[in-house]
Write a structure and sequence with these properties.
The chain has a domain of 130 residues: THUMP fold, CATH 3.30.2300. Helices cover 34% and strands 25% of the residues. Strands 1, 2, 3, 4, 5 and 6 form a 6-stranded mixed sheet that branches. Keywords: Signal. It comes from Acinetobacter wuhouensis. InterPro entries: LpoB.
Length: 198
């Protein structure tokens, strides 16, 4: 094969590969995200803001948190949509906002097994100085539980698509089972497919 032809072919491949590079930019994490109708970061932020604002302004919750910081835990939020949605991200954001409000304390049930393993290791492994080991039985019990659902209704007609999301959250007294507070956030998103499929 002609050496000039080989060099020209290599140069063409390199040039074409260079044209296919990806440019990455940082964006504002708080800006509205509207790439498609699927559940996204803006939806998560709107839900968290609405829930925390509603909860902290509810008269019963204001009274509960007036002179102390009640302890609560977050139960798993049930995803009843057809999408894969990380509901733990929603509850993490709500939990962070509630903790930072200074009104509540939380126990992390997702770490309960790891803490039990650590307590067992400290007590029974023979490797930990018992004068410095943590004693079992000192955990604080949660008084309240946050739990809820995320559901959706999707309609597709022709090139148009509409999705309605509803997020419901409840604050429940662990001892009595009474629901002390509940709220919901509704979101409707629509999309229209381009005639050219773009």
């Amino acid at each position: 094969m002609n050496m000039k032809l080989v060099l020209a072919s290599v140069a063409t491949v390199v040039a074409l590969t260079g044209c296919a590079s990806t440019q990455v930019n940082y964006g504002d994490a708080q800006s509205v995200e509207t790439l498609n109708k699927d559940f996204g970061s803006t939806d998560l932020q709107m839900i968290a803001d609405k829930m925390v604002t509603d909860m902290l302004s509810f008269p019963v919750v204001v009274q509960l948190t007036q002179n102390r910081r009640p302890v609560m835990f977050v139960d798993k939020i049930r995803n009843k949509t057809q999408e894969h949605i990380d509901t733990e991200s929603i509850t993490d954001t709500i939990q962070n906002k509630l903790i930072n409000s200074g009104k509540f304390r939380f126990v992390d049930m997702t770490a309960a097994n790891a803490m039990a393993d650590q307590l067992n290791y400290q007590k029974n492994s023979g490797l930990v100085n018992q004068a410095t080991s943590v004693k079992a039985g000192g955990h604080i019990g949660a008084e309240y539980m946050l739990n809820g659902n995320l559901s959706s209704i999707v309609k597709n007609v022709g090139g148009k698509s509409d999705v309605y999301y509803k997020f419901t959250l409840k604050l429940q007294n662990v001892q009595t089972g009474i629901v002390e507070w509940t709220s919901e956030k509704e979101i409707r998103k629509s999309a229209k497919r381009s005639a050219f499929g773009l």
